[in-house]
Amino acid sequence: MTKKTVRGIIAAVTAFILFAAPIAAADAEELATASQSGYTGWVYQNGERYWLDSGTMARSKEVYDPNSDAWYWFDADGTMAHDKDVYLSSEDKWVRYDGEGHMIKGEDYRYGGWYYFDQTTGAMAKGMKYINSNGGKWVYYDWSTGRMAHGETFVNYDGDHTGWYLFDASTGAMYHGDTYVRSNGGKWVRYDRVTGKMVKGLHYQDGAYYYFDQNTGAMAHGSAWVPEWNSYATFDSVTGRYVGNTDSGTGGNAGGHNIRGQYCKKSEVGQQRTDADGTPIICEYRAGNKVPHWYAR
């Protein structure tokens, strides 16, 4: 064998090593070289996975692999995304890829919280959503982060849903009905049976009226000023059901229950009375309140 022939063989082997990267189809049954312009499939190199579309490396794009029936994302350098959230501006959605690079669909627990991704598009859910887990439940995914809410939560991403809600501390299920919460020093509140939003103001349910503070949502017990009726009314000390009108027009509290802390009329500002327990009270604006209340003198 001549020196010229040997040099030719060495050059050919070197070229193969430098330019013929091992490329495998998704089922790892085929091998090709990167120079094959018509090849579409996976490339495995230096521990990373890449994708070729007709010989061109996929960069900053989604790819669907029919063999694995999954979507993948490839960054600008061509590397496959895994354990990563990606914003797809062309479809205005956030999506997530798992450790194998597959686009996640359905519920996913990560970063210390629960998230949900559309079963078809993979888009991260945000806002109120009904899901089938735990026997079916309404939940709220934070409008910014997409993380499932737990506990008392103020929602304000649109006009229809603006208000306070309560979500189970474990499952995130939206609460409906009356319950006791610890906020504002402890109070009974009501969450609408349909919408789940905290009820405020005068509310009619099951054949009776109830009143809930316009600011805190606290259920009234005893005598309370009801703006909708422009008068005081008495509500059962246990159930909160309306039991009668207590506005006597006298200098005393005829309702039989203390009214300190309750609303009073603007026309009553400066008036003094004696509360049910004998405490002298006065109608005043205090603590920056825009509505006057009855306070102990």
Question: Can you walk through the features of this model?
Answer:
The chain has 297 residues and is mostly beta strands. Helix content is 6%, strand content 38%. It contains 1 helix and 25 strands. The strands form 10 sheets. The chain has a 5-stranded antiparallel sheet with strand order 2-1-3-4-5, with no helix packed on it. A hairpin with a 2-residue loop joins strand 18 (201-205) and strand 19. It starts with a helix and ends with a strand. Residues 3-35 and 248-252 have low confidence and may be disordered.
Strand and helix map with partners:
Layout: H1 3-19, E1 23-24, E2 31-32, E3 41-45, E4 48-53, E5 56-57, E6 61-65, E7 70-74, E8 84-88, E9 93-97, E10 106-110, E11 113-117, E12 127-131, E13 137-141, E14 151-155, E15 163-167, E16 177-181, E17 187-191, E18 201-205, E19 208-212, E20 222-226, E21 231-235, E22 242-245, E23 272-274, E24 280-284, E25 293-296
Antiparallel strand pairs: 1-2, 1-3, 3-4, 4-5, 6-7, 8-9, 10-11, 12-13, 14-15, 16-17, 18-19, 20-21, 21-22, 23-24, 24-25
Signal peptide: 1-26
Keywords: Signal
Protein name: Surface protein A
